[in-house]
């Protein structure tokens, strides 16, 4: 999804441009309006903006100053400048700035402005097009250095002791990782939700590499970043600000806040690029704060588990997670050394995601486990690992109490190393099948809960910001994904639902209150009373005053 911010201090012009582009057939583009440069900066500080269509002459801050603010936050944003006069000095400055796509006179008409927006969208598409890299991934994939970098980062995630800063910096420099050992790191997790046509392990391995490159390509404009795959489904990203060495605790808080804001906004583009260019559905979990290197393992584990919190599992989640530094250590796949433990963890991941491939991992686990069952210590480890893994999974998914009643979970109390292996296999297979069935029911319930949350928010915030971005934040989903999902579930777009509720609320206020027209207009989200009149008449066939007179 792309976002275009329209900025003009003249309400009539701004509302006209907003209405024009709302009606235009630009697929998957959200339109936002700002009545001043300062309001525009508030938007730039809160979400990623792809295109800015701005007036040049505004009180307090002109268009050229605004460009500097835009570039400081979103370097790849495209800017279109509007003016009522042919001002050569402004035009000369504008065309020298690489982010400025066009310099337009307001008198040139909407067709010229629309054409300029289309050119900007084309530039964005070309810059974000990763399809051409597919052959490059296969033929020129660099091997040695990336593998060494990945291995060091994986090793760091397994370390629990405090790092010696100088030694760690030597290790980072040796494999040409750009990070500073005396600075904290922002951890990010990218989890593949739907593999779609990528069924073979070779394809999935290649696509994981592609996802990592997409993340690095989009984030590297303003930060130092390295992305690696942790397992068959999950990629981890490590981020630090660019520029000179920083001290997180002494005077550079603002720089870190800017970095976090950039990371949050850009991760939405990572999701979009994965969907558009790789036909891949991913969820992203990012820490709300930077963490020390020795805390990375715990932070990564918490990010991985956060996907199970709240509704929407399997959807394109976009979560900010507050990492608890003092929480107990949570084991993850990086600390599993045996093949059996690897297969067991894959079972848990696939059962949680509702993937049909969970049976494949289950068979691999049973086959790998049988090879060592003659050793009583190995047998004890396998039995206890399977039991602990199932209990942890049930707790994570909130199914423990139900399992106690519906699948006789208490039978596990009687399992020991003398219990026949075949009995355990049957029990655990049945347990995982039961979880799969429950997750299907839960997913339907989750969808209902998300719809209820969306509709409740819209009904109670008609006079506030009802942009797709703001609504998506309420349910922790990618805005573009939310738009597609909502239309698939309900058969109509979110904007249609908002329009219906605004008309419904307008009628209630017209008949059930003595509010004046400009008050009603504001209560249902229209800053321009005339725009409200046109909107109401188009929907009902009469003006608001005519409706009030007829019904009374």
From TrEMBL:
SUPFAM superfamilies: CheY-like, Homeodomain-like
Top-level taxonomic group: Bacteria
Protein's name in the database: Two-component system response regulator YesN
InterPro entries: CheY-like_superfamily, Homeodomain-like_sf, HTH_AraC, HTH_AraC-typ_CS, Sig_transdc_resp-reg_receiver, Tscrpt_reg_AraC-type_HTH
Lineage: Bacteria, Bacillati, Bacillota, Bacilli, Bacillales
Keywords recorded for this protein, A-Z: DNA-binding, Phosphoprotein, Transcription, Transcription regulation
Residues carrying 4-aspartylphosphate: 55
HTH araC/xylS-type domain span: 452-550
Domain Response regulatory: 3-121
């Amino acid at each position: 999804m792309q976002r275009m911010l329209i900025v003009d201090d003249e309400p009539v012009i701004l509302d006209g441009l907003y209405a024009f582009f709302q009606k235009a057939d630009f697929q998957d583009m959200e339109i936002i309006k700002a009545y001043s440069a300062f309001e525009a900066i508030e938007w730039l500080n809160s979400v990623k903006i792809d295109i800015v269509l701005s007036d040049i002459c505004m009180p307090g801050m002109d268009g050229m100053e605004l460009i500097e603010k835009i570039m400081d936050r979103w370097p790849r944003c495209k800017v279109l400048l509007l003016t009522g006069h042919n001002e050569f000095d402004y035009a000369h400055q504008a065309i020298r700035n690489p982010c400025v796509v066009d310099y337009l006179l307001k008198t040139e008409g909407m067709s010229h402005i629309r054409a300029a927006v289309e050119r900007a969208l084309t530039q964005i598409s070309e810059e974000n097009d990763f399809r051409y890299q597919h052959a490059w991934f296969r033929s020129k994939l660099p091997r040695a250095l990336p593998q060494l970098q990945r291995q060091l980062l994986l090793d760091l995630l397994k370390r629990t002791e405090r790092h010696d800063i100088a030694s760690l910096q030597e290790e980072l420099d040796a494999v040409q990782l750009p990070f500073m050992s005396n600075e904290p790191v922002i951890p990010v997790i990218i989890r593949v939700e739907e593999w779609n046509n990528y069924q073979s392990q070779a394809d999935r391995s290649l696509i994981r590499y592609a996802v990592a490159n997409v993340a690095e390509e989009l984030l590297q404009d303003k930060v130092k970043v390295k992305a690696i795959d942790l397992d068959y489904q999950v990629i981890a990203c490590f981020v630090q600000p660019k520029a000179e060495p920083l001290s997180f605790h002494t005077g550079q808080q603002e720089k870190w806040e800017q970095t976090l804001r950039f990371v949050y906004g850009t991760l939405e583009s990572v999701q979009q690029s994965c969907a558009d260019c790789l036909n891949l559905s991913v969820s992203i979990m990012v820490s709300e704060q930077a963490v020390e290197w020795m805390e990375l393992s715990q932070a990564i584990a918490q990010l991985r588990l956060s996907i199970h919190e709240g509704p929407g599992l399997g959807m394109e989640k976009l979560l900010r997670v507050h990492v608890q530094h003092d929480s107990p250590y949570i084991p993850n796949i990086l600390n599993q050394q045996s093949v059996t433990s690897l297969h067991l963890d894959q079972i848990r991941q696939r059962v949680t995601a509702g993937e049909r491939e969970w049976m494949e991992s289950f068979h691999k686990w049973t086959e790998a486990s049988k090879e060592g069952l003659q050793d009583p210590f190995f047998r004890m480890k396998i039995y206890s690992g399977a039991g602990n893994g199932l209990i942890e999974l049930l707790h994570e998914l909130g199914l423990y109490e139900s399992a106690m009643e519906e699948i006789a979970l208490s039978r596990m109390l009687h399992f020991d190393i003398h219990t026949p292996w075949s009995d355990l296999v049957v029990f655990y297979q049945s347990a995982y099948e039961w979880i799969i069935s429950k997750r299907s029911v839960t997913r339907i319930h989750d969808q209902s809960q998300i719809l209820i949350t969306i509709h409740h928010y819209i009904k109670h915030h008609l006079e506030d910001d009802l942009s797709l971005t703001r609504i998506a934040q309420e349910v922790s989903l990618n805005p573009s994904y939310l738009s597609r999902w909502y239309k698939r579930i309900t058969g109509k777009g979110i904007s249609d639902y908002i329009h219906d509720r605004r008309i419904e609320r307008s009628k209630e206020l017209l008949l059930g209150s003595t509010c004046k027209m400009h008050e009603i207009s504001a209560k249902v989200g229209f800053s321009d009373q005339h725009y409200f009149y046109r909107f109401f008449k188009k929907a009902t066939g009469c003006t608001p005053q005519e409706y009030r007179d007829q019904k009374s």
